[in-house]
Amino acid sequence: MKIQIHHELSYEYNDAVYLEPHYLYLTPRESSILKIRKYDLEISPKPNVLSENLDAEGNVQKIAFFKEPAERLLIKVFTEVETLDFNPFEFVYYPFDSNNLPVNYPESIKKSLGLYLTLEGVTTLVDQTARQIAASAGWSTSKFLTELSNFIFKGFAYEIREDGAPYSPETTLLSRSGSCRDYAVLYCAMCRAMGIASRFVSGYYLANVDPLAPSQDQYLHAWVEVYLPGGGWRGFDPTQNQVVSGSHVPLASSVVPELITPVSGTYRGSGNGFLATKVKIEEA
Are residues 122 and 220 both part of a single domain? Predict the structure, then answer.
């Protein structure tokens, strides 16, 4: 499937300000199931330097440096990607006992996954709730992952919150509400409680909307990837109650969601800022 993404961010200031370096995570992550066919990035004012590199977790990161004062920062991205549909459960757990919880990774893999197994945010309540879901799933790894998604999807009230860091896992669990990034952080914590390495993913989701219906607002999206022995990194989206299999376009993944905000940066000056963002996603 070919997907076209038009993403525009506009920062307006009521007085000229000096822009500090801005970090951009706006490049889709290529893989065996996703290829970038077109990519165009426009930044105004034009940066004096725009560097591109891989960050500590292997994500494509751009850093824009500015010299002149500005009253506006405009970032436009056009991307066309091609994704492949696939069966996310078409693999064999190996070692075979990884099919059941808790997951015990071989030591050779566990060392490299340590960052994604941290129990930060796994409170007693989060741990107990994860264990209850695991027990209802018969301690099956695959069934736990799908039932956990269903638990959040059916039992929580979704809210759109464009700004701010994700809530803590326990806050979301207690309130039974949150945005997609809150759901993702909670899902990660519950997976780690069961010994499953997990990471937060930022990107786009192609909603299945009627092409004849009026245009709908689109937003950046967040979901989760878990590392399954024999299957590698696999995506789960509790907001949509889906296993990721072709309609998601990842931009970056991290154990720390705040590190992969699509655009982040600061400015110097007395001006107050206002952010407007537009995202249009459609099949090509």
Answer: yes
For residue 91, being part of any structural domain is answered with no
Task: Please provide the DSSP assignment of 142-178 as one string.
Answer: HHHHHHHHHHHHHHSEE----SSPPPPHHHHHHHTEE
Euclidean distance between CA atoms 68 and 79, whole angstroms: 28
- Measured CA to CA in angstroms, residue 26 lies from 63, 202, 278 at distances of 11, 10, 14
Whether cis (ω within 30° of 0) applies to the bond prior to 262 is no
Rounded Cα distance between 258 and 125, Å, is 24
3-state secondary structure of 260: helix
Residue 212 has pLDDT above 50, yes or no: no
Q: For position 217, what pLDDT does the model report?
A: 53
Query: What is the rounded CA–CA span in Å between residue 125 and residue 86?
Result: 35
Beta bridge partners of residue 53, listed in sequence order:
61
Which residue range forms the structural domain that includes residue 33? 2-84+261-283
216, part of any domain = yes
pLDDT at residue 246 is higher than 90: no
User: Is the pLDDT score of 93 beyond 50?
Assistant: yes
Total domains in the chain come to 2
- Rounded to an integer, what distance in angstroms lies between the CA atom of residue 166 and that of residue 251? 18
Mean pLDDT, rounded, for 84-91: 88
- Residue of 221, 218, 236 whose CA lies nearest to 277: 218
Q: Which residue has the tokens 């537009």?
A: 278
Nearest partner of 205 among 129, 110, 280, judged by Cα:
280
Give the integer Cα–Cα distance in Å for 218 and 4.
13
Question: For residue 21, how far is the Cα from the chain centroid?
Answer: 23
Tell me how far apart the alpha carbons of residues 263 and 280 are, in angstroms, rounded to a whole number: 17
Task: Indicate the pTM of the whole model.
Answer: 0.93
Q: Does 73 fall in a domain? A: yes
